[in-house]
Amino acid sequence: CRVRHYKFNVVMKNTTRLCSSKPIVTVNGKFPGPTLYAREDDTVIVKVVNHVKYNVSIHWHGVRQIRTGWADGPAYITQCPLQTGQTYSYNFNITGQRGTLLWHAHILWLRATLHGAIVILPKLGVPYPFPKPDKELVVILAEWWKSDTEAVINEALKSGLAPNVSDAHTINGHPGPVPNCSSQGYTLPVEGGKTYLLRIINAALNEELFFKIAKHNLTVVEVDATYVKPLETDTIVIAPGQTTNALITAERKTGKYLITASPFMDTPIVATDNVTATATLHYSGTLASSSTTLTIPPPRNATSVSDKFTNSLRSLNSKKYPAKVPKTVDHKLLFTAGLGVNPCPTCKAGNGSRAVASMNNITFVMPTIALLQAHFFNISGVFTTDFPSNPPTVFNYTGTPPANMATKNGTKVYRLPYNATVELVLQDTGMIAPENHPIHLHGFNFFVVGRGLGNYNARKDSKSFNLVDPVERNTVGVPSGGWTAIRFRADNPGVWFLHCHLEVHTTWGLKMAFLVDNGKGPNESLLPPPSDLPKC
Ligand code: C2O
């Protein structure tokens, strides 16, 4: 194993997209940011220096951070942010993981431009469980706002209304050809006959996406840095925070083919950015002036396309990569995830109310001291451990909501003993209207054992759980008006954030944290914090 050193200078950089320029927050002046390469079992040390006016923290999304919660990154959950001028070295091991993940800012809405790929190769000499590709390429999907994203969310919080949507989606930083500007969009160069591994990442703030390439099928071999049974498809569905590795064979020999990243939102209750980002798959030897073979992306509400893809994913579950699904469960939890409205006398534009979001009817309030610090140093008054295992009131989650369902504010965690096995059913609620929620759990991978529409019915639905080869991930979409059941083992002591990866929902409070106690064994406790951990 090696130690990989990286230096991330967080700096402003004037960047032009859609014919207009604005200063954006970047790592080393790049958008998307630099790719972090490592091998399974390597140690990674990233020295982050904050040169911008915002407080900053960086999250290594999907890296398990076993016993090193101090390097996880979510601001006020595992660390206080780096203030202007401060430096912090994130120091962690990549234990037992290989594949594609992403890093991103985990404070405010800085993730909009502060993100990049993490590529973890297998240990030296260990092959992929699929044919070796000729080449590998990172494909990052994101969004672009013409205006300043911090201003967008601050304005929304003041008014109580939903924030403005982005002006475009992007593929490796580019929306596509923009008439009247010299911008051509991203070109993915291929050679006829060769096979490519695309490491596709959705880093967008607020949009699930469909990804498609004209006249080329994709074979999905990995999601969220876990191997899956090869799945051939013409369309990939990918939620913010998710990653998908897919093989593509350049079997057409020549030509140019359209690549699309288009929004998926089955029941949009607020406006969505409806613009499809495009890029070009360009065979070597093809003239730049030749015409591009087009493809039509699925309609925005193509739930059937999304369901088919999602329901087809299975863990590889081979001898070498077995799916270690917990067969018994110590903690059975049901968390509702939903949007709602709370009174807000100062919200004039919102008519005296504001949009909120909650889990089990609790709108999470960010503390001012990081939860992990409060836990480790026994600082009282920062959080309470009474996050409910079930919704406080049972109602028809996907039907007409009861009147007066204002949420309660709180900084509550759910406490788990070390190594407890957990089944968590995430139930969407239709408080304003149903919406999909890509829920991300820090510190763990989980198995997606079940998924369905309507209200979860424990007796009936648990009978059909897949405990053999369910897909293993770190971020899962809870279907609009439905539920998803996950299982995991709490084998990582610390405080771990669980939240919707649609940034607007997180901002509104769709988040909570698990507190996992230390175990009794020699390697079962949280390590002490590094000396340069930022102070609050
Ligand atoms: Cu990718 Cu808590 O986030």
Automatic annotation (TrEMBL):
GO biological process, one term: lignin catabolic process
Cofactor descriptive note: Binds 4 Cu cations per monomer.
GO molecular function: copper ion binding; hydroquinone:oxygen oxidoreductase activity
The keyword Signal belongs to this UniProt entry's keyword annotation: yes
Compartments it resides in: Secreted, Extracellular space, Apoplast
UniProt EC number: 1.10.3.2
Catalytic activity field: 4 hydroquinone + O2 = 4 benzosemiquinone + 2 H2O
Alphabetical list of PROSITE patterns matching this protein: MULTICOPPER_OXIDASE1, MULTICOPPER_OXIDASE2
Keywords attached to this entry: Apoplast, Copper, Glycoprotein, Lignin degradation, Metal-binding, Oxidoreductase, Repeat, Secreted, Signal
Start and end residues of each Plastocyanin-like domain: 10-123, 136-285, 386-519
Coarse class of the protein's main subcellular location: secreted
Domain of life: Eukaryota
Keyword Secreted (UniProt): yes
Cofactor dependency: Cu cation
CDD domains (UniProt xref): CuRO_1_LCC_plant (cd13849), CuRO_2_LCC_plant (cd13875), CuRO_3_LCC_plant (cd13897)
GO CC terms: apoplast
PANTHER family: LACCASE-4, MULTI-COPPER OXIDASE
Function summary: Lignin degradation and detoxification of lignin-derived products.
Family classification: Belongs to the multicopper oxidase family.
NCBIfam families per the UniProt record, alphabetical: laccase
Protein name stated in the entry: Laccase
Source taxonomy: Eukaryota, Viridiplantae, Streptophyta, Embryophyta, Tracheophyta
Gene (UniProt): LOC116209331
